[in-house]
Amino acid sequence: INGAEAPTVQLNDGHKMPVVALGTGRGTAPGSESVEEVRRAVLDAISVGYRHIDTAAIYNDEAQVGAGVGDAIAKGLVKREDLFITTKLWNDKHAKEAVVPALRESLRKLNLDYVDLYLIHFPTATKADGSPDSIDYLDTWRGMEEARQLGLVRSIGVSNFNSTQLQRVYDSSQVKPAVNQFEVNPTMTQEPLVKLCKKLNVAVMAYSPFGFLVSRKNADAPPPKADDPELVKMAAKYGKTTSQIVLRYLIERGLTPIPKSTNKERIAQNIDLFDFQLTEDEVAIISKFNKNVRVIHPVGMKDYPNYPFVTEEPSV
Ligand code: NDP
After folding, report:
1. Relative to the CA of 41, which ligand 1 atom is closest?
2. For residue range 67-100, what is the model confidence (pLDDT) as tens digits?
């Protein structure tokens, strides 16, 4: 019982993306968790069947992700071509001519010749000091297309783009975004944006998949928590944990969850999702928790050009 047979989704450019990714972003408290843990977490994940690892330049762990991947290959667990590695372009590298050098730097740290997926991490551009910049993300997208042309990346996409921004890139690009990665969980169900992505055939990666289920600083966080009676009932019915119920909920909706864990048992648990299915009614029950409340809201950038989380998503 592991994810060795983890299914894939077909991207709009013909590549296949495994539907559970190991998250390696470790939140906003750098130093609270040793980056060295990431190397072991990546190896543990690949050992139990993960084939998709999610990192980003801003996580400062691409070297550890690369080392974990290297360990797994050296042990003969997988070959490079069996893996799907995602990384992301940070906000201060949005100038068209900055994209390829930024990706080359990520590849150097990862010790890879190419990544499978490169995402614009956030639509908002900043200068190196974090102050706002006015670069249009369409210019950034041209840099992404060039990186793909050079063979440094197979698929390109975006992250944290709202409906308007996604549609704008889609309408004015040669290579369409293959993926939009954004927050989806029981309190942030994102029906309108998911619906638009389905219409455009843009695959969705769901970050912070547990929402407020797991321990978060916010004591006033909305339900569900891990001991929620509805989730506990489903967990008992299927012999799973409530965490697994929430991940399976995202899979039933056709999304690719990105559970982060550095704990070996939880890493294994988070991909042990393919021997049961939720009913439509159960999916609807979980969707009813929606409050449009985000775990991740980088309010420090809220007045910057192209900040994405300003309005509710329009219905499509
Ligand atoms: P998650 O919803 O993955 O929650 C992570 C927390 O859940 C950790 O504290 C982890 O602890 C705990 N946990 C993991 N598995 C279980 C389990 N089975 N039972 C109980 N607790 C569990 O949130 P994140 O915000 O970390 O998001 C996941 C990933 O998504 C990130 O790592 C990153 O890769 C990506 N991301 C992308 C963003 C973007 O802007 N594109 C923004 C935010 C995240 P432990 O490690 O101890 O198990």
Report:
1. 46
2. 999 999 999 999 999 999 999 999 999 999 999 9
ipTM of the complex, rounded to two decimals: 0.99
Token couple for 215? 């321990």
Residues 176-206: tens digit of each pLDDT = 999 999 999 999 999 999 999 999 999 999 9
Tell me what pLDDT residue 290 has. Answer: 97
Which atom of ligand 1 is least distant from the CA of 33? 46
- With a pLDDT cut of 90, the percent of the chain lying above it is 89
Task: Quote the number of domains for the chain.
Answer: 1
Residues annotated catalytic, as ranges: 59
What are the backbone angles phi and psi of residue 254, rounded to the nearest 5°?
85, 20
Specify if 305 maps to a domain.
no
- Ligand 1 centre distance from Cα of residue 173 (Å): 32
Closest-CA residue to 33 (of 61, 53, 69): 61
- In terms of residue numbers, what domain contains 65? 3-211+255-262
Instruction: Determine, yes or no, domain membership for 300.
Output: no
What CATH number does residue 75 fall under? 3.20.20.100
Is residue 183 in a domain?
yes
243 C-beta closer than 6 A to ligand 1:
yes
Q: Residue 34: phi, psi to the nearest 5?
A: -65, 130
Question: Helical H runs in 19-117?
Answer: 36-47, 62-74, 96-110
